[in-house]
Amino acid sequence: MTEAPARGPYAKSAARRSEIIASATAVFGTHGYRGGSLRQIAKQLDLSLTTVMHHFPTKVSLLAAVLSQEDAADTDFSERAARDGFIPTVLTIVERNLGRRELVRMFTVVQAEATHADHEAHAWLRARYADVIPEYAAAIDYDRSLGRVTATTDAAMLADLVIGMWEGIQVRWLADGTDPVAAMRVALDALLLPAPVSAAGR
Amino acid sequence: MTEAPARGPYAKSAARRSEIIASATAVFGTHGYRGGSLRQIAKQLDLSLTTVMHHFPTKVSLLAAVLSQEDAADTDFSERAARDGFIPTVLTIVERNLGRRELVRMFTVVQAEATHADHEAHAWLRARYADVIPEYAAAIDYDRSLGRVTATTDAAMLADLVIGMWEGIQVRWLADGTDPVAAMRVALDALLLPAPVSAAGR
């Protein structure tokens, strides 16, 4: 945090916005986006509906703010993967997610709802896959060029599988606490680091 | 179908129940269990709320009926895996799921909500993992004893990963149509059939 702290009404307004976003994360993570309401969010914060709507005039404007929380945290993925390798970079994010369980839950619930073509976050969900998969595929290809990844499978397919597996493993963690870091480590190694095929091999 | 068809009022009642379960599957798959209501389900079928409640007095009794649909379809997993092998048996279910998209979506949405400890389906979700994982692990171990699986990783971990990966891959399919059969085939091979380590290997 190198920014000077904001003062006065602006700081108050920014704090209020953050508070509303945090409450919406919990409400959407419990009731889904469709089942949640601005009224519930206002009630949870002991604010009037009018105050909440001053900051977020519509539920969908609040959804956009809620969903942009994660993206902000992952903007430097490509740089980190080039430096540290794809596998360690993914594992670092899985570990960091251990400390933001309700955010992960909200994404899991909203994402499941948003698979519907007429859901308010459907375009967001598809854009997210369309952005992340080429980014991951490029990082996997780069690691392959350095010998840090030995799998010969198409990089876009590997990226698909990493994303899919990651989401499923996080659902399990949310449900019963199964360690997602251990699971992801085994899965990433199996997918990306197969043993070299022996001369007598397949 | 070897049973004689039921007749008269019982048959009518059974048909009505199936109709309500199908409507609830669509409503819970769209709005979640928490966001869905008996009223919406009644409206979709053009029935009175009283008629729906005659068959399912509470929303949670309907949830139980909705969730038991999948289990019924997978009761012979172990027998089929012992006969045909674990990988082909899983792939057959993934393929069959292509034809029951709204059922898969309902499970995905309800499962995400049900990760919450206080959700009505939380116990169901945990029991499902507790049942399926040992069953899959046993099938993997059996295949290993026959040489049909060559991975040396702990079978319970492999079962965890297969389940996690499968769920994530299905979310992706629901979102943008990415072929889940192709993805599962690559993922299952990578996890369960690693190349033999060469003499000069790791």
From TrEMBL, chains A, B:
Stored InterPro entries: Homeodomain-like_sf (IPR009057), HTH-type_TetR-like_transc_reg (IPR050109), HTH_TetR (IPR001647), Tet_transcr_reg_TetR-rel_C_sf (IPR036271)
GO molecular function terms listed in the Swiss-Prot or TrEMBL record: DNA-binding transcription factor activity; transcription cis-regulatory region binding
UniProt entry keywords in alphabetical sequence: DNA-binding, Transcription, Transcription regulation
A UniProt-annotated Pfam family: TetR_N
Record PROSITE patterns: HTH_TETR_2 (PS50977)
The UniProt record lists the keyword Transmembrane: no
Superkingdom classification of source: Bacteria
Claim: Transcription is one of the keywords in the record: yes
The entry's DNA-binding region: 37-56
Chain ranges of the HTH tetR-type domain: 14-74
PANTHER family: HTH-TYPE TRANSCRIPTIONAL REGULATOR BETI, HTH-TYPE TRANSCRIPTIONAL REGULATOR RUTR
UniProt protein name: TetR family transcriptional regulator
Biological source species: Microbacterium oleivorans
